Amino acid sequence: MSQTLTVQAEQRLNKYCDALAKAYGIDISKLDKQFSVTGPVETTLRSALLASVEFLGLITCLDVDQIKGQVVQVGVGQLYTGRKKGGRFKGKVGVDGNTYELTETDSCASLDWATLCTWANAGSEGEFIKLVGEFVNKAFALDMLRVGWNGVSAADDTDPTQNPLGQDVNKGWHQIAREWKGGSQIIKAAPGEKIYFDPDGKGEYKTLDEMASDLINTTIDPLFQQDPRLVVLVGTDLVAAAQAKLYSEATKPSEQIAAQQLAKSIAGRKAYIPPFFPGKRMVVTTLDNLHCYTQRGTRKRKADDNQDSKSFDNQYWRMEGYALGEHKAYGGFEEADIEIGADPAVLAAEAAAQAAQG
Q1: pLDDT digits (tens, 9 = 90+) for 11-51
Q2: Could you give the C-alpha distances from 54 to 47, 49, 65, 69, 74, in angstroms and in order?
Q3: Which among 31, 113, 162, 309 has most CB atoms closer than 10 A?
Q4: How many CB atoms lie within 10 A of CB 124?
Q5: Are 28 and 114 in contact (CB under 8 A)?
Q6: How far apart are CA 269 and CA 287, in angstroms?
C-alpha cells in the first residue's frame, strides 16, 4: 500500500476539493470544518444521492421539518372518488396514528491514499473528480438502503463490527412492520418451527409465486390487494434456489429464458432484488410505501485529508429515519424463519410410508 500521496494524486485531490467547495458555495479553507448544507445546495445533494443508486430513486425520500411527526402520505391511500349529497365528496389523505421519528445519522466515506493514487493514474483530472464524487455519493446512498432493510434499533454508540449491515443505526421498514400491531404484517413460523421453501415440493412453498400470493392474501389489506403498483421484493437466496430448479429442468431455450426472467416477475407482479435485501426475505408492498425522511436544514458536510489514517474522509451528518406510508400495504416473511430445502417432517413421513410398503 502506498504510504503517501503522489504529487499527481495530491494535485487532483486539491482540484476535487476546489470543485466540492464551489458546489457548496463555501471557501475552500472551510471545507475541512463541518459546514451546513442548506437552500438549493441541499436539494442538489439530495438529488445526487438519489441518482447514485437506482432503487433509492424509486422509493419515497422526502425532507421534513420536524424530528417527530405524522407520516407524509404520498402514495397508497383510501378511495378518492364518490359523491356526497348536498356537498362534495372528499377522499381522506393521511394515516391517523402513523408517525415517524428521526435520529442522528453520521456517515463517513473514506478513501485510502493508495486508492487515490491509483485513480489519479487511471485517467484525466475530470475522471478523477468524477470517480471520487461517485464513490462518496454511492457510499452514502447505499447505506440508506442497507439500514432501511436491516435496521432493528437506534443505538447511542453503534458497532459496525457486530452489526455490519447497520442493524443498530436505525429502525428500518421491516422492523417497523414487525412492531406494528404485534407483527400482523409479518408471516412467522410457529415457535421452534421453520417455514420451508422447497422447489421439489417437500415444504410449505414450492414456488416464489406461492409465497408472494400467500403474502398478498394474508397480510395485505383488501383495499390494496388489487393495487397495480404492488411489487414483490425478494432475496437472492430464494431466487437462486428457484432458478436452480428451473435450470435443472430446462430442456428448451424458452424454459431457460423463463428461469432468467424469474427475478423480474413473481405472482404476476413486477419483482425486484433490492440492494442489501436479506437473502431469504420476501416482501410485498408498493415502492412509494417505503419512506426515508431527512430533517430539512440538518445536513452537514466535511471533507479533509486525514494524515493520521492516510485517507481522504468525506463526512455527512443529518437527522434521518424511516417510515411506512401505510402499514396495511406492507407484508413480509420473517427471513430467520425461512429454510430453503425439504421439510424434515415430510421426508420422515415419506420414509415411513416407504418402509410400511416394503
Answers
A1: 999 999 999 999 999 999 999 999 999 999 999 999 999 99
A2: 12, 10, 26, 28, 20
A3: 113
A4: 9
A5: no
A6: 12
